[in-house]
Amino acid sequence: MRDLPYLIPILFTFYISLGLAQPKTLAVSTAFALSIVWGIARGRGIMWQDRGLKIPKRYIYYAFWTSLAIILIQLLKLGQIPLLNPTIRTQLSPRLTALTYFLGVPTSVYLFLEGRRYSLMYPLFVALYAYRTPVLVSILAIGLAYYEEGIKLERGNLKKLVGIAFLGIVLFEMITYLRGNTVSSLWVRFQSTVSALDVIVWRGDWLGTYHGSLQWAGVTSYFMGGYSPRGLIAKFLYVRTGATITATLLGGMYLDFGVFSIIEGFLLGIYYGMMSRAENPITKALYYSTLSYGIAGVETGILDLPVYLLFAAGIYVLYQGYRAGESK
């Protein structure tokens, strides 16, 4: 469990390098990745008591079934299934969709760790939204949890892990195919994401351009409308109104704080380093959920309200555990 967070800086560095980023971007990205590594190492050495969250188990079950019910309600309201007609997915309610992600990911992980196989219903249901990232995050969270908690990858366990991975690949490819994407179009998106980061690093103020308002837009846009974080990135890049742009894990942070985004990377590393020592089942569910969002965020960034809320819950657990450790 303690080594899994290192996947984030490793994958981020690989992503940037494979995308043929410019030398300045590579330098900033390397410093950012190293700050995450340093943060993880420091976080692993901080002592805290994992007391989890005082949430009755029945409420976790309620939250899981509520997340599935929200998906069905949205589909009934649309009268169509976005997976079969991806163009209508923009008509989904952002607030209800966000609530689905916030409730569904951690509760499905928790129930999976409890041995409830029906927890795999969540990635199947959320795939109906026709968005790839939620499916990837869900399968990653469950797969990482199973990999770590399986103790030994015996033959039966290995089969289950392969089955989870296969389910994720099938759902991901199905959404990609039905949305009319091809391998070449995904490669173009990959390169355009790195190119967007190139422009951000070259044109952005080294002290930051938005000074925190870009990431804060991940909260305000859900309640008051206006530009989303990726909409602000598109605006900075002079892309047409209404478009959204992903710019890797670093892009949003750099536009907000410039080179001081390295500090944000360090704090992110501390969070993962401390959470890697989770023992309470609820804390583990939060850990695997935020870890999977961090891995997926290598490309998409961590810029959405549901993700912020999961991190906030995790930080609260760490804060309470740290205080309890100090009082001993």
Flag low-confidence runs: 151-156
- Give the percentage of residues in beta strands: under 5%
Treating each run of at least 4 consecutive H or I residues as one helix, how many helices? 14
Could you tell me the radius of gyration in angstroms?
Answer: 19 Å
Give the SSE string.
HHHHHHHHHHHHHH
Note the quaternary state here.
single chain
What spatial form do the alpha-carbon principal axes imply?
Answer: globular
Biggest beta-sheet profile: none
Give keywords.
0% strand, mainly alpha, globular, 328 residues
What order do the helices and strands come in, and which of them pair?
Blueprint: H1 7-18, H2 23-44, H3 57-78, H4 94-113, H5 121-126, H6 132-149, H7 155-178, H8 183-203, H9 213-224, H10 229-236, H11 248-257, H12 261-275, H13 281-300, H14 305-327
Helix pairs in contact: 1-2, 1-13, 2-12, 3-4, 4-6, 4-13, 4-14, 6-7, 6-13, 8-11, 9-10, 13-14
How would you characterize the overall build of this protein?
The chain has a domain at 60-178. Helices cover 71% and strands 0% of the residues. It contains 14 helices and no strands. Helix 1 runs antiparallel to helix 2 and helix 2 (23-44) runs parallel beside helix 12.
Summarize the structure.
The chain contains 14 helices and no strands. It has helices spanning 7-18, 23-44, 57-78, 94-113, 121-126, 132-149, 155-178, 183-203, 213-224, 229-236, 248-257, 261-275, 281-300, 305-327.
